[in-house]
Write a structure and sequence with these properties.
mainly alpha
Length: about 500
């Protein structure tokens, strides 16, 4: 036990004051995050898109005794979350949005933790503040979509991983890395892109841990717990759909990538012709949808008109899209690069577009009562909601944000900061995968925003550090010059 003198030393008091100051600052950031979300939540109707129904129905049917049968392209966790919230609190989407905003506050805490591990207390606070007031994040949390839950699980997985890396330098990493694998497994059951996150983090361990043995054990623990969480659902999909996968959707995603944004891909049959009549008929349907610039009805048309199961429709879409891409690879790569930049830059918050889509959406009769409609009070509060959603809009400062994030990631060139470089590579890889496999889908970027905010905070810390160093050197130089001038006549 330390002596009373050691406990009461000035250094100890300064450390204690620093901890109290950090806790006080973090509490302030969390209160701000909560206030922004509550103020927004009570002013805006729940936001929905066409895809919202495919998340809602499985959860709704589950709590009403109808079983649980999401379509192949939907992993299960968000629908289970929706069903749990509706079953626990009642069938009102406004309550679901409130719960999602509370998840957003937890994500702010996790963002602070990631930033603190990478860039210290100040870096964590800056990242948490940006996440607390980010308009796109707040708006995304208000959608009947999986992003709010996925963002929390992704941040929790990354935080546990970074904690495991830090502990691994003392030889005690396995527990935290195993927890990270389980959290990423849950994230993959929410959004399948978490499988790519797992691969990147597993591949990074040998570069972050000092010896090969803890790195190997860490990879095994990370991957094993991921598989424990994910494989049961994959086995279920094999039994139900004939596909050993977390979710389908790659075929439809490539269809969106080659149809929705671009009109110059060549979808004609290869010179040797299509192998069978089904493929030929599928190609005609694909080309019909391409002419309209929409892939929304493609999957259902293939199922209905060809009489094929969902997994076969996926295979047909994927095959036709890949043939077109391989026919024009340069065009595809240029488009992917442009879509990557566009997705990172984002677009300014346009709250009225989020506010209105319900008007053109028809839901099945059994859930019609849940389709949200703005109340008169919410319509009057639109201006206030819009101001809350634009407190901080990353798209309006995209060039500065990009520079700071790159600087923050590049601090990882230093051996003691390698995790920052890995997080930068993770963000880059996930954004590129989205651009390559889907195209421009704004909401796919927002789960990465807390990590981007962490890197930007690291960039701020690096710039401030460089500026402070320059000031110190300038002061020292001037002091030396003064001493030299004062000593001159005496010599």
């Amino acid at each position: 036990m330390g002596s009373p003198a050691a406990v009461s030393s000035p250094a100890s008091w300064r450390a204690l004051a620093g901890i109290h100051g950090a806790l006080l600052a973090l509490t302030g950031v969390l209160l701000l995050a909560l206030l922004v979300r509550l103020a927004f939540s009570f002013r805006a109707p729940p936001f929905v898109v066409n895809d919202s129904l495919s998340y809602l129905l499985p959860g709704f049917d589950l709590i009403h005794g109808g079983g649980f049968n999401p379509i192949l392209k939907r992993p299960p966790l968000y629908s289970l979350f929706v069903g749990g919230v509706l079953g626990l609190f009642g069938e009102d989407l406004r309550l679901l949005m409130l719960v999602q905003h509370l998840l957003g506050v937890v994500t702010v805490v996790l963002t602070y933790g990631i930033g603190r591990l990478l860039f210290g207390v100040a870096g964590g606070l800056i990242a948490a503040l940006l996440t607390a007031i980010s308009g796109p994040i707040v708006v995304t949390e208000h959608y009947l979509m999986s992003e709010a839950l996925f963002t929390l699980l992704l941040a929790a997985g990354v935080l546990s991983y970074l904690g495991g890396v830090r502990a691994g330098r003392r030889g005690t990493s396995l527990g935290l890395l195993a927890l990270a694998g389980a959290l990423l497994g849950l994230a993959a059951l929410t959004r399948p892109i978490a499988q790519l996150v797992l691969l990147i983090l597993a591949a990074g361990l040998p570069f972050l841990l000092p010896r090969w043995r803890p790195a190997l054990f860490g990879i095994v623990g990370l991957v094993a717990t991921f598989l424990v969480v994910a494989v049961p659902w994959m086995a279920r999909n094999q039994a139900v759909h004939g596909a050993f996968t977390i979710a389908g959707g790659s075929g439809e995603g490539l269809a969106v990538r080659t149809i929705r944004y671009e009109q110059r891909f060549d979808f004609r049959a290869p010179p040797e012709g299509d192998p069978d009549q089904t493929v030929s008929r599928a190609r005609r349907i694909y080309r019909d949808e391409a002419e309209d610039g929409s892939a929304f009805e493609l999957r259902q048309r293939l199922i209905d008109e060809l009489g094929v199961p969902e997994v076969e429709a996926e295979r047909l879409m994927r095959s036709i899209a890949l043939q077109a891409i391989l026919r024009q690879p340069d065009y595809y790569l240029r488009g992917t690069a442009e879509m990557f930049v566009t997705t990172f830059v984002g677009r300014p918050v346009r709250l009225r577009q989020d506010w209105l889509p319900w008007r053109n959406i028809a839901w099945e009769e059994r859930v019609q009562h849940l389709l949200p409609e703005p109340t008169a009070v919410e319509e009057r509060g639109f201006g206030a909601a819009e101001r809350l959603a634009t407190l901080y809009d990353p798209a309006r400062v995209a060039p500065l944000l990009a520079v700071l994030a790159v600087v923050g990631a590049l601090t990882g060139i230093r051996t003691d900061r390698r995790p920052a470089l890995l997080i930068g590579l993770l963000v880059l890889a996930v954004l590129l995968a989205g651009a390559a496999l889907i195209g421009i889908e704004w909401r796919y970027r927002f789960p990465l925003d807390p990590l981007i905010n962490v890197l930007a905070a690291g960039g701020v810390m690096a710039v401030v550090g460089l500026a402070a160093g320059a000031v110190r050197r300038s002061v020292l130089w001037r002091g030396e010059q003064s001493v030299t001038r004062a000593a001159g006549p005496a010599s």
